[in-house]
Amino acid sequence: MIDAGRPARREVENTWCPGCGNFGILVALEQALAELRFEPRRVCVVSGIGQAGKLPHYLRCNFLHGLHGRALPAAIGVRLVNPRLKVIAIGGDGDMYGEGGGPLLHAFRRNAGIACFVHNNGVYGLTKGQASPTSGSGAVTRATPQGSGMPAFNPVAAGLAMHGTFVARAFAGDIGHLTAMMVAALQHRGFGFIDVLQPCVTFNKVNAHQWYKQRVYDLAGDGHDPTDLTAAFGRAREWPDSGSERIPVGLFYTHQRPTYEEQVPSWQRVPAIDVQPDPARLRRALEELR
Asked: Which of 124, 179, 223, 270 has the fewest C-beta atoms under 10 angstroms from its C-beta?
C-alpha cells in the first residue's frame, strides 16, 4: 500500500526539461494517490504520445503507453475489463484535444468511471513547439511564424457542453490545489476531468509560471456554485483571449448520472477479467470466419 509520506515513483531517468510544469503534475498525482492510499497494483495509468505521455514511466503502478490521441478509448477498455482498477488517462493538449479530440468528447458523453488529467501547455512540446489546439489566437510558433489565426480550443466549455459530470481546471504551479482537485476527480463516480494549465519553459514563453500566477483565481473562494451549469459556462469563457484578465481554476461543474459501466449489461453480470475462457466457443467463432 502507498504510504502517505512516501512517493510512489519509479527510479528512472526523467527526460523533462528543468522547470517543466509536468513536474508539479507528477508530484500532485503522487500526493493524491498517497492521500487516497491506493495500492500500486490497483492503479493503471494510460497515456498517449508526447511529453505528458511519459508521466506513467515515473510512477510505481501499472501503465499502458499507447497511440497518439487514443489514451481514453484504451483507458475505458481497461476499466470495463477490470473494475477493480483505478484507471487514470494522461495526455497533453495536442494528444487529448487534437488527435484525441473525438475520443474526449465521447468520454464526456459516456461518463466512464475513470479520471482524465490533461497537461495543457499550449504547444506540441515533444515535437519542438508547434501550435496546438490551445495555442492562443496570434500565437507565434515554429509552425505559425506569422501568428495562429484560429481561436484556442476551450476544453472546459467543451466538457460542459457534453454534459460532463466533473469538469475542472487547475494550475501546475499550485500543487496543493491541484492535489485536492485530483483527489476529488479520483473519488468521483464517473468521468473526472481536469484541464491542468502547465507552463512550458522551453517553447511557450508567453504562458509562463508568473503569467499564470498573476491571473489564476480559485472558483471556490469566489462564490461559484459548481451545480449551476449556466454559471459554469460563464466562468469557462473567462480567459485573456476573451477580454478577461482573470483565469478561473477549480471545479466548474459536477452532477451525477449513470456511468458507462452501469449501462453495459455484461459488465453488470461478470467483469471480463473474471470470465473463464471457453475453448469450444472460440473454435466455433473461428469456424464461422473461415
From this structure: 223
The CA-atom distances, in angstroms, between 14 and each of 21, 55, 174, 266 are 13, 9, 21, 41
**Model confidence at 239, in pLDDT bands (50, 70, 90)?**
very high
Amino acid residing at 67: L
Beta-ladder partners of 115: 88, 192
Distance CA 225, CA 288 (A): 56
Q: Report the greatest alpha carbon distance in the chain.
A: 66
The alpha helices in the chain, defined as continuous H runs, are: 22-36, 71-81, 93, 101-110, 155-161, 175-187, 209-213, 229-236, 265-269, 279-288
pLDDT number for residue 167: 98
Are 80 and 264 in contact by the 8 Å Cβ rule? The answer is: yes
DSSP conformational letter for 175:
H
Axis crossing angle, helix 175-187 with helix 22-36, rounded to the nearest 10:
50
Rounded to 10°, the helix 71-81/101-110 angle is 30
* CATH class assigned to 22-288: alpha beta
Joined together, the cell numbers standing for residue 114 give 475513470
Per the model's pLDDT, the better-predicted residue between 26 and 8 turns out to be 26
Task: Among 9-18, 61-70, 85-94, name the most confident range.
Answer: 85-94
* pLDDT tens per residue, range 266-278: 766 777 888 888 8
* Other beta carbons less than 10 A from residue 19's beta carbon: 13
Residue 177 carries which side chain, given as an amino acid letter?
Answer: H
Query: Residue 45: in which H helix or E strand, if any?
Result: strand 43-47
Residue 99's nearest CA partner among 48, 154, 54 is 48
